[in-house]
Specification:
By secondary structure, the protein is α/β, with parallel strands linked by helices. The chain contains 15 helices and 15 strands. It folds into three domains: 88 residues, Alpha-Beta Plaits; 88 residues, Alpha-Beta Plaits (2-Layer Sandwich); 149 residues, HAD superfamily/HAD-like (Rossmann fold), CATH 3.40.50.1000. A seven-stranded mixed sheet has the order 12-11-10-9-13-14-15, sandwiched between helices. Strands 2-3-1-4 form a four-stranded antiparallel sheet, with helices on one face. The chain is elongated and about 90 Å long. The protein starts with a strand and ends in a 12-residue tail after the last helix.
């Protein structure tokens, strides 16, 4: 039986090193069973698992590798791998693989220690750890800094619900976000992203802004907050709030639209998604006037929201057509998926309120963004620490591929 060797090389990164090592291996006609390489701060670590043919000059191979390592001041280790150990390693490839994504303004050792402790307690093995965010400078953090580390883990069996709950406890204690998802074919094959608008794409509840213009701000805000917490039926509360806007001049809509603040990372996210060929949509319980404003600004593909009834330049206190509530959002999401020719597993839904839960629950990836407690607890994924463009990390895209610093 052929021997199996694990060859590891480490030291200062140098041009041509990988080419030279693999050329030596090729000269001895070995078969490569696995290979991996990483560079951290100009220091390289490379491992190659090889099968040595019976007619191979094993001593000559070792001598050639050692000579190269000495010449280039690299550290070299060559270890024999028992065939039964290799067999167990091969069998492990059938185990489910998961991705844990740590999102924060800055990564600390305590965060990594607590996350990996949970991984260890559940008997999972870490296959790889990758930094997806750009390099963080020393000293004070830059404004709106982003830090992300992705763990690829594998295990034979897992109580996913219990594991997720423990991760969420750690995330809450550390004030970071921890996303946990199975690493399957859909993860990088999403094609459609649907957003709620108010408090998701923009940092405001538009109906509250309109109410302030109409002088009924406190009354509407109280109803809005109860509805978003899931304490009131959305459609009923929506009609009650809109009724309070009766008599508001149409010019107030333009005034409100001009001062709306787009959420951190929203424009970067949407422009990147469009570059990658994704389709985007707004599915909002707010108003089409403002959704169209965002559509024009960011090139969003589809818009569905509520149409304010305006007569003689004034809001009547009513809406036209079917109210876009939680159930309607879910229906529209299914409709858009059919129109775009994609499976629901290829759809991402993002929202913050209780009326977003139906669409979050049926999407392949449902994300609660800076959401109310009920929504955070119910949604599969949650982002509160960073901006909307942190969603790109959940899809596995590093800052390098987003056009940011490596």
């Amino acid at each position: 039986m052929a021997d199996i060797l694990l060859i590891t090389v480490s030291g200062e990164d140098q041009p041509g090193l990988t080419a030279a090592i693999t050329a030596i291996l090729a000269g001895h006609q070995v078969n490569v069973l696995d290979i991996g390489q990483a560079v951290i701060h100009a220091t390289l670590s490379m491992g190659v698992l090889v099968e040595i043919p019976e007619n191979c000059d094993r001593d000559g191979l070792s001598t050639a590798l050692e000579a190269y390592a000495r010449e280039h001041t690299m550290r070299l280790r060559i270890n024999a791998v028992p065939s039964d150990s290799y067999g167990q390693w091969v069998e492990g490839q059938g185990r489910a693989r998961y991705i844990i994504t740590l999102l924060a303004r800055k990564i600390t050792a305590d965060q990594l220690a607590q996350v990996t402790a949970v991984v260890s307690r559940y008997g999972l093995n870490i296959d790889g750890i990758t930094r997806l965010s750009g390099r963080i400078p020393l000293g004070d953090l830059p404004a709106l800094s982003k830090a992300c580390v992705e763990f690829s883990v594998r295990g034979a069996s897992l109580d996913a619900g219990a594991f997720r709950r423990e991760l969420l406890e750690v995330a809450g204690a550390l004030e970071v976000d921890l996303a946990f998802q199975q690493d399957n074919m859909y993860r990088r094959n999403r094609r459609l992203v649907a957003f709620d608008m108010d408090s998701t794409l923009i940092e405001a509840e538009v109906i509250d802004e309109l109410a302030a213009e109409a002088g009924v701000g406190e009354q509407v805000s109280a109803i809005t907050e109860r509805a978003m917490r899931g304490e009131l039926d959305f459609s009923e509360s929506f009609r009650a709030r809109v009724a309070l806007l009766a008599g508001l001049p149409e010019s107030a809509l333009e005034e409100v639209a001009s001062r709306l603040k787009i959420t951190e990372g929203a424009e970067h996210l949407i422009s990147t998604l469009h570059t990658l060929g994704y389709r985007t949509a707004i599915l909002s319980g707010g108003f089409t006037y403002f959704a169209r404003h965002l559509q024009e600004k960011m090139g969003i593909s589809h818009v569905y929201a509520n149409e304010l009834d305006i007569v003689d330049g004034k809001v009547t206190g009513k809406v036209r057509g079917t109210i876009v509530d939680g159930a309607r959002k879910a229906e529209l999401l299914c409709q858009l998926a059919r129109e775009e020719g994609v499976d629901l597993q290829q759809v991402i839904a993002v929202g913050d309120g209780a009326n977003d839960l139906p669409m979050l629950s049926i999407a392949g990836l449902g994300i609660a963004f800076r959401a109310k407690p009920l929504v955070q607890q119910t949604a599969e994924q949650s982002i509160s620490t960073l901006g909307l463009d942190a969603i790109l990390y959940l899809l596995g895209f590093s800052d390098t591929y987003q056009g940011d610093a490596p």
